[in-house]
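thought: user wants a sequence for this fold. calling inverse folding tool.
action: design(structure=
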């Protein structure tokens, strides 16, 4: 299976990152994790998940957060670990995901300015022409935000805002989160069972079914 890099920043919406990590692990993939300084604060606030003084997950905390599968298939790196594999184009990282992506991280990636491992990994993905998926979570968007989003889209990044749909008749917050996570996995070309797919409008039916069928 492939290895993916997941960068978590200070934008709100860390449930998206949590669900995405679990989905990748459930698919048998390996995962490198890095959290920015601001991301560590938001992660603790929104999910009650803590990192150590350097910004890394201890093995026990990783397993508590992501389950037993995390023990052998997740590597945690500090945001200042420039020697991490994802910082080099030779590492063979399949794709880089920044979820959620703050506007600050977005701006620095758009400018080619790497101040931490998350931004460097994104920069490497662009230069190596590997998939880079950015999941911004911000509203309203300023003209500057829009310019940065457009620039990155033109550079080849996949800009996938955390904008869940409602056509699948969501009943819980998890349904909304899974809808976005399914979109991310689709962008990577991965098989999954997250969210619901539109199958055509049917009388008395929302016209959706889970990926893989009912």
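)
observation: tool returned 214 residues.
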């Amino acid at each position: 299976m492939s290895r993916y890099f997941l960068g978590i920043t200070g934008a709100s919406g860390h449930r998206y990152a949590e669900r995405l990590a679990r989905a990748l692990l459930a698919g048998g993939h390996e995962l490198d994790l890095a959290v920015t300084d601001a991301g560590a604060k938001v992660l603790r606030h929104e999910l009650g998940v803590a990192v150590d003084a350097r910004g890394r997950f201890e093995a026990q905390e990783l397993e508590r957060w992501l389950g037993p599968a995390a023990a052998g298939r997740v590597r945690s790196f500090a945001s200042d670990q420039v020697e991490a594999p994802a910082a080099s184009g030779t590492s063979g990282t399949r794709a880089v995901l920044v979820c959620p992506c703050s506007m600050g991280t977005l701006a620095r990636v758009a400018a080619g300015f790497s101040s931490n491992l998350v931004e460097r990994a994104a920069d490497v993905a662009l230069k190596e022409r590997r998939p880079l998926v950015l999941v911004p979570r911000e509203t309203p968007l300023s003209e500057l935000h829009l310019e940065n989003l457009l620039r990155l889209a033109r550079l080849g990044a996949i800009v996938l805002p955390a904008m869940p749909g409602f056509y699948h008749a969501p009943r819980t917050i998890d349904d909304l989160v899974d809808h976005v996570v399914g979109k991310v996995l689709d962008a990577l070309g991965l098989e999954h069972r997250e969210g619901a797919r539109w199958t055509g409008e049917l009388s008395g039916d929302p016209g959706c079914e889970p990926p893989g069928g009912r």
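thought: summarizing for user.
answer: Here is the designed sequence. Helices lie at 14-26, 37-47, 59-66, 70-73, 103-111, 117-127, 143-155, 173-187.
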